[in-house]
Specification:
Rossmann fold, globular, 462 residues, Alpha-Beta Plaits, eight-stranded mixed beta sheet, alpha/beta, five-stranded antiparallel beta sheet, 23% helix, single chain, 2 domains
Length: 462
């Protein structure tokens, strides 16, 4: 029997650990006894020059840890305290930046809760849908899309996150284990049995494509293919910038129709960075811009390969309009569909509840950042206001965050792409998502909702 658990905490299962953007940047540590990184990203002038650059680095005693030749990046380990200065003297090198490791998602705690059992009776055969716990699917009219014959069959969604429980009965039917991969050193993409139930990547995957099997849940695109791409540690939620970039390129190179990134980081263009332990410190501003440029190269690569890229907006509750000193990764980059979160307030599944379009209390917002809105849940009023999805070891758990909103959009993108035989450009997919969204806050670009709240049925019928 599946176990249901409840996440609790200040920001629930947020996309990232962030500082308030209005917080003073004074008193940041500038001198560290140990560097907050182990490796460097060496960025070649072009992808064609990566191999020759790596050969020159080997002769200087450096160790090549890994390579992303598609975008001209090598990850290098060196004990040379002057590595950056010495390496920049070599030919064909555009930039060298420490490969910082930061927290992209936080760790969480949970407590068990009980759900009633139902006799399995697409959608109505799933007990927790039957009991109206999956309010997010109702909010976006997903059942009407299924009834019209659109379930995502033939579309693939690559989940860049903290791994997936490959044996979960709700996910295994749709999971491509041969393509799944890990870019976190020492960790497999399939999470360990000893990992707590509240594995972030597993929860995200369930919202996208929990299978239609009558066992409990159902995802937005219940017949879509899932691919796990681990870019964050399942234990800490942290990861190096190079791991994120490598995962994006891998997904694009392997023909991902959709890339879901329920993760994020906030960078101060003046040089503020928060490490994996939550400690702020200063780095050169030029490093920040090189980090941003490197991730944009990865995004552009996958985008040109035909991948529609979906990312969460963040959970710091900040309006990004007017905060030009900060940039959100990956949500603030070009060629990314950035998602804010909506929620009900005191949702009662036993009543005829219809208002699912309240901006979540935590959601990051701003016309300059948000493209679209989707159900992310909230926990300020009631447990049922959160999003129920899959957890490790065949569990289920509740969570809330823009991390939960992004996979709703990824599921809709999969429905759109599958309807069109898998042959759609990211531009076309994005246009269809935005054009068919419900304009719940005016007809233009809303501060909290972007172009509107996604509508699965309209997306595949209009």
């Amino acid at each position: 029997m599946l176990v249901c658990v409840f996440l609790f905490g200040a920001v629930f299962s947020s996309c990232e650990k962030e500082e308030n953007l209005s917080e003073s940047d004074e008193n940041l540590a500038t001198d560290l006894q140990e560097p907050p990184f182990k490796n460097y990203m060496v960025i070649s002038e072009s992808s064609d020059l990566t191999k020759s650059v790596e050969n020159s680095l080997k002769t200087s005693g450096s160790e090549i840890i890994s390579s992303i030749p598609e975008i001209g990046i090598s990850i290098v380990s060196s004990k040379d305290v002057n590595f950056i200065e010495n390496t920049m003297k070599k030919k064909n090198i555009n930039a060298v930046v420490p490969d910082y490791e930061i927290a992209w998602i936080p760790t969480s705690k949970g407590i068990e809760a009980n759900l009633p059992e139902a006799t399995p009776s697409i959608g109505s055969t799933e007990p927790y849908y039957y009991y109206d716990y999956l309010w997010g699917l109702e909010a976006i009219d997903a059942p009407d899309a299924w009834n019209a014959g659109f379930t995502g069959s033939g579309a693939s969604v690559f989940v860049l996150d903290s791994g997936i429980d490959a044996e979960h009965i709700e996910l295994a039917p749709n999971l491509n284990t041969s393509l799944s991969a890990s870019f976190v050193p020492g960790e497999d993409w399939n999470v360990l049995e000893s990992t707590p139930f509240d594995n972030h990547g597993t929860h995200v995957a369930g919202t996208i494509a929990a299978a239609q099997n009558g066992l409990g849940l159902i995802g937005v695109a219940p017949h879509a293919e899932l691919v796990a791409v681990k870019v964050l540690s399942e234990f800490t939620g942290s990861g190096a910038f190079s791991s994120i970039n490598a995962g994006i390129v891998y997904a694009g190179e392997n023909s991902a129709d959709v890339i879901n990134m329920s993760l994020g980081a906030t960078l101060n263009k003046n040089g503020k960075l928060v490490d994996a332990n939550g400690d702020p410190y200063k780095i050169p501003a030029k490093y920040v811009m090189e980090i941003v440029n490197a991730q944009q190269k990865a995004i552009d690569y996958a985008y040109k390969k035909g991948s529609t890229i979906i990312a969460s907006a963040g959970n710091d509750g900040v309006n990004y309009d007017g905060n030009s000193a900060y940039i959100k990764l990956p949500g603030g980059l070009n060629n990314v569909v950035t998602v804010s979160a909506t929620a009900p307030e005191g949702y009662d599944w036993t009543a005829d509840y219809t208002n699912f379009d309240i901006p979540a209390s935590y959601t990051t917002h701003g016309k300059s950042l948000v493209d679209i809105a989707a159900p992310g849940g909230d926990g300020d009023v009631a447990l049922d206001d959160m999003i129920l999805s899959t957890g490790n070891n065949n569990s289920l758990f509740w969570s809330a965050g823009t991390s939960m909103a992004a996979p709703h959009v990824s599921g809709v993108a999969a429905l759109i792409i599958a309807k069109n035989g898998g042959d759609m450009s990211p531009q076309e997919v994005t246009k269809q998502i935005e054009k068919t969204a419900d304009k719940v806050d005016g007809n233009g670009q809303s501060t909290f909702f972007g172009k509107g709240r996604i509508n699965a049925y309209r997306a595949v019928t209009e």
